[in-house]
Amino acid sequence: MTLFSQHVVPLSEPAMTDSSAAASGTSTAAFIEARNLWQEYGDLVVLERLNIKVDEGEFCTLVGASGCGKSTFLRMLLGQERPSRGELLLNGQALPNEPDPSRGVVFQRYSVFPHLSVLDNVALGLELPRSPVLGRLFGAAKREARERAAEILTKVGLGHALNKYPSALSGGMQQRLAIAQAVVMQPRMLLLDEPFGALDPGIRKDMHALLLELWQETRLTVFMVTHDLSEGFSLGTRLLVFDKVRHDPQAPNAYGARITYDIPLNEARRAQAQLPSELAERIAAR
Ligand SMILES: Nc1ncnc2c1ncn2[C@@H]1O[C@H](COP(=O)(O)OP(=O)(O)OP(=O)(O)O)[C@@H](O)[C@H]1O
């Protein structure tokens, strides 16, 4: 039996994994829960009836055809957008509507400030909340923030580049910097939107190792969008496939995507990782 046939989710039912089913049997709320979530922009339905429960510490990889709403879902998790309908809950409460330090984010590009040094890029996040007016700390507090920033930068392999500017860094180094910038704030959730999409395969491997090391150390809850299925299968504890289950060729905007496969990943499943070839091709296409 293939992985595909083991995990067909009935179209009318919310996707449930082993862990989410177990979670639903307990009285404690899931860390993150989407209940009947919709996102519509005018007459464009992007997401419809999306249901999911995610426990704290899970590493979810999100895959799906281009334009099916993966980034939209991340933006809602970040608090940049509100759902048009349904609920998005954090520990059973509505997720805060504004981005905050509990949620770190890394995009494919442009996550870092080009006019700040590597050290300042990371120290700024620590300094701003403690000195919102001046934007800068002084004395011991400043030293402490910069030491902490330097520590994280050393961890991600940028200890030698503290005084460089992002333009002097390679793509992989810039993404290391973006990750340091996000994790220095000690978020509970890390949202990654194709963070390694622009990197060469060899560099990507190094980044995977770094990300897994950070995740294992911090046990952050991770949501990572990727078009690379092998990355999706090998990095996560859970692979979420976004897809439309209804299509109307006369009205292509009328129906949105939801999570059609919710695949818990373990060693055995990684080894036989596969999705239907037509779906795999759509996910890989940009
Ligand atoms: N603010 C907005 N207003 C109108 N349409 C939007 C808005 N944000 C996103 N969309 C549309 O919603 C759809 C989903 O976009 P989204 O970026 O979430 O898809 P995606 O699955 O992340 O795609 P990709 O894999 O190509 O990055 C697209 O058709 C996009 O044009």
Automatic annotation (TrEMBL):
The keyword Transport applies. InterPro entries: AAA+_ATPase, ABC_SmlMolc_Importer, ABC_transporter-like_ATP-bd, ABC_transporter-like_CS, P-loop_NTPase. It holds the Pfam family ABC_tran. Gene3D superfamilies: P-loop containing nucleotide triphosphate hydrolases. SMART domains: AAA. Residues 32-269 form the ABC transporter domain. The keyword Acyltransferase applies. Keywords: Acyltransferase, ATP-binding, Nucleotide-binding, Transferase, Transport. GO terms for molecular function: acyltransferase activity. This is Lauroyl acyltransferase. It comes from Ectopseudomonas composti.
